[in-house]
From TrEMBL:
Keyword DNA-binding among UniProt keywords: yes
Modified residues (4-aspartylphosphate): 61
Alphabetized UniProt keyword annotations: ATP-binding, DNA-binding, Nucleotide-binding, Phosphoprotein, Transcription, Transcription regulation
GO molecular function term, any single one: ATP binding
Source organism of this protein record: Corallococcus sicarius
Name of the molecule in the record: Sigma-54-dependent Fis family transcriptional regulator
Region span, Disordered: 397-423
One GO-annotated biological process of the protein: phosphorelay signal transduction system
SUPFAM superfamilies in the record: CheY-like (SSF52172), Homeodomain-like (SSF46689), P-loop containing nucleoside triphosphate hydrolases (SSF52540)
Length: 478
């Protein structure tokens, strides 16, 4: 238990200055105010501290060697995007201060500074950090409250999906969920059920691709005793088991036209007939169906009944593939690792370089592939901190630089056996470039919405656009 006389830590601050006396004096002042303070003499040393994720505020000198304060700020925000920073300068240079704030610093202070001024600016910066943390916590609580905690991600695509899901959940409308394998279609269906008025009733899933055609009808509709060889007793089908709740029919396009016809009749009449019986039974079931195929193409090719398609597609929910929301990879990886840690006597943690490594991959197997990669790394890694080499990525899933609409083509590279291919930095830069360009195409001059979609501050967006030599629309507004 904390002693009543012991000051409660008010925030975690990293003081960086290559002048030992200045660094020690500043740290001593802040510790006297109840802050937890770390010190670093160089930018590289500071980055090592920041990578551990235990800093709320960076207080750094601008003029240092060999890494100056502006470079430290840039690299520090890449390691910890939520980091607050105050720059210290002995020159009172407005240009340097403006540049630092444009790059993402919260404030600056001119040396020699008054103790009261430093206290005030530090307190304001830490209050902003608390506010950002509160917003993040609110988003987490919102997802948990609405049964969406399993739908990890704050990308624009995921926000649109969850918003649409919450709107349709309260109705009894039939929902068709479309997405590639491994995107989490069943999680979406479960979230739909959890937030519906049927949440206290059964959620019953069935995968049509996992059951043979001869057994699927019996599985869904049930059968009477003696209806076929092996039917030694009457059995309720999944429609009856889901009565009052939700029936999730996964891979519905894997069914035959004959079965589709029987399913259509059940959806139209709200009744089921067990195999071998003539009496119809009323059922009150909400249907959520899913497919990983282009169902409209299946209809055009006459492999799926058009009338059943329209019956199922009252509301469409599209689950985006992971390659379209790579900004969600860090949160997803951390989510899967924390879940793995609950089952392991040896907790692991993700390194910043491992996250960057994962961000260079387009995940052909989607979220399921990322989950498997994290679990494999947690099980086999030698060290507690997971490194890039703990995540072997398939070559066919590597993200390669490519020309994007509205951008100059990437430099031509040799394709012969002596070519080393793009570097990791080039791959990450091209992924950022594509994401920003696509967001600009969607939102045009509204840079605030662009930044919101990408999950970064407006300052960070401007900084990245300048580094990538991307020009905003002439009438852009924040």
């Amino acid at each position: 238990m904390t002693d009543a006389t012991t000051p409660i830590p008010r925030g975690r601050i990293l003081v960086v200055d290559d002048q030992r006396n200045m660094r020690a004096t500043t740290a001593l002042l802040l510790r006297g105010e109840g802050y937890t303070v770390s010190e670093a003499a160089t930018g590289e040393e500071a980055l090592g501290v920041l990578s551990q994720g235990q800093v709320d505020l960076l207080l750094t000198d601008l003029k240092m060697e060999p890494m100056d304060g502006l470079t430290l700020l840039k690299r520090g925000l890449e390691v910890a995007p939520r980091l607050q920073a105050i720059m210290m300068t002995a020159f009172g240079s407005i240009e340097s201060a403006v540049e630092a704030m444009r790059l993402g610093a919260y404030d600056y202070v001119t040396k020699p500074f008054k103790e009261g001024e430093l206290r005030y600016r530090v307190e304001r910066a830490l209050e902003r950090a608390k506010l950002q943390k509160a917003v993040d916590n609110f988003a987490t609580e919102f997802n948990q409250r609405h049964g969406l905690s399993a739908l990890v991600g704050r990308s624009q695509a995921m926000r649109e999906l969850t918003t649409r899901l919450l709107r349709v959940a309260q109705s009894d409308a039939t929902v068709l969920i479309q997405g590639e394998s491994g995107t989490g279609k069943e999680l979406v269906a479960r979230a739909l059920h959890t937030h519906s008025r049927r949440s206290g009733q059964p959620f019953v899933p069935v995968n049509c691709a996992a059951i043979s055609e001869t057994l699927l009808e019996s599985e869904l509709f049930g059968h009477a005793k003696g209806a076929f060889t092996g039917a030694v007793k009457t059995r309720r089908g999944l429609f009856e088991e889901a009565d009052g709740g939700t029936l999730f029919i996964d891979e519905v396009t894997e069914t035959s036209p004959t079965f589709q016809s029987k399913l259509l009749r059940t959806l139209q009449d709200g009744e089921v007939r067990r195999v071998g019986e003539s009496t119809a039974l009323r059922v009150d079931v909400r249907i959520a169906a899913a497919t990983n195929r282009d169902i409209e193409l299946e209809v055009r090719e006459k492999r799926f009944r058009q009338d059943l398609y329209y019956r199922l597609n009252v509301v469409m929910l599209r689950v985006p593939p992971l390659r379209e929301r790579l900004e969600d990879v860090p949160a997803l990886a951390e989510h899967f690792l924390q879940r793995s840690n609950l089952r392991s006597p040896r907790p692991r943690r993700l390194s910043a370089t491992a996250v960057e490594h994962l961000m260079t991959y387009n995940f052909p197997g989607n979220v399921r592939e990322l989950e498997n990669l994290v679990e494999q790394a947690a099980a086999l890694a030698e060290a507690d901190e997971l490194l890039p080499e703990d995540f072997p990525l398939r070559p066919q899933g590597r993200v390669l630089p490519a020309a994007s609409p509205g951008l100059p083509p990437t430099d031509a590279r040799a394709t012969g056996p002596e070519s080393s291919g793009p570097t990791l930095a080039e791959v990450v830069e091209e992924a950022e470039r594509r994401a920003i360009v696509q967001a600009l195409e969607r939102h045009g001059v509204d840079l605030a919405r662009v930044a919101d979609e990408l999950g970064v501050s407006s300052t960070t967006l401007w900084r990245k656009m300048k580094r990538l030599n991307l020009r905003p629309p002439a009438d852009a507004r924040e």
